[in-house]
Amino acid sequence: MKNLIVVPLDFDEQSMIALEQAANVAEVLQSDIILLHVTDEPGKSASAQAYHEEKEAEIREKLDVIARNVGTESGLNVRYEIRYGKVYREVCDFAEEKEASLIIMGCNSSRGLKRFIGSNALRVVRESKTPVITIKGKTHRKGCEHILLPLDLTKETREKVARALDFARAYGSEIHVMSVRESDKFDMSALTRQMNQVQRFIEDHGVPVKTEFVEKKGSVAETIIEYGSRNDIDLIMIMTQQEQDITELFIGSQAQELINKSEIPVLSVIPRTSESTAGSVIFS
């Protein structure tokens, strides 16, 4: 894996906000950035080819200006590429081909939310083998002072905590570990033991940590988002899971709701090994 961030860019406001955040991340992680613009395949007629060449020249000019400006302001190595085809497929394939360490992409809100989330951003999260940060909110701090790990009893907890530690050490962040209590009858003993183990593990690595059990209000995703807003969280980390025997990734409804509604950036990661039940997101 290379120290490289892929930023899908279609020149709308949210993709430019995602680029700004990608530059912030890249400065801290000392990563290169590749801007990726995906457009339709050109038609076969002479007039369609001519129109395509004209539009591509305009796109390249825009990308060149943006790449140079971001590179000059940040001191980063920023370049761009153009691909043709379906956005989600090209983004996933490109990131894998380049051995990128991260995809950072915007999610449009209001009228465009369903279109973009449904057909592109969520499908990238679902199918990408590369970790994805989705950016929906309009305003974000430059740093990453607080990272949120929603916790349950799944076995991918250790891997998720290790990834959070990487970010926390790079940024000097505090990690918040929270778990949603869904009912009064909920068995807290095993989860409390795991919470304590995670807290000790993080503390042993010299990273500040807070832990909290939160009563469910609305959906699990809404409870997590409310906690994040109340605690000035900069990044929420979740793990997606790949089903055995088939290649497409499946994401549970709580993860979809979290990505769709959260104004806080969400980092979605596939576990390196996935042996438990598919069709869900792991809040581990």
Can you describe what's shown?
- The protein has 284 residues and is an alpha/beta fold.
- Helix 3 packs parallel to helix 4 and helix 7 (220-230) packs parallel to helix 8.
- Helix content is 43%, strand content 23%.
- The protein folds into 2 domains: 4-135, Rossmann fold (3-Layer(aba) Sandwich), CATH 3.40.50.620; 146-282, 3-Layer(aba) Sandwich (Rossmann fold), CATH 3.40.50.
- Residues 110-118, 242-250 and 274-284 have low confidence and may be disordered.
- The chain is elongated and about 70 Å long.
- It starts with a strand and ends with a strand.
In short:
The protein is built from eight helices and twelve strands. It is α/β, with parallel strands linked by helices and 284 residues long.
Jot down its keywords.
284 residues; alpha/beta; Rossmann fold; 2 domains; 12-stranded mixed β-sheet; 12 strands; 43% helix; elongated; disordered C terminus
Q: What's the arrangement of secondary structure elements?
A:
Blueprint: E1 4-8, H1 13-29, E2 32-39, H2 46-74, E3 78-84, H3 87-97, E4 102-106, H4 113-127, E5 132-135, E6 146-150, H5 157-171, E7 174-181, H6 189-204, E8 209-215, H7 220-230, E9 235-242, E10 249-250, H8 253-261, E11 266-269, E12 281-282
Parallel strand pairs: 1-2, 1-4, 2-3, 4-5, 6-7, 6-9, 7-8, 9-11
Antiparallel strand pairs: 5-11, 9-10, 9-12
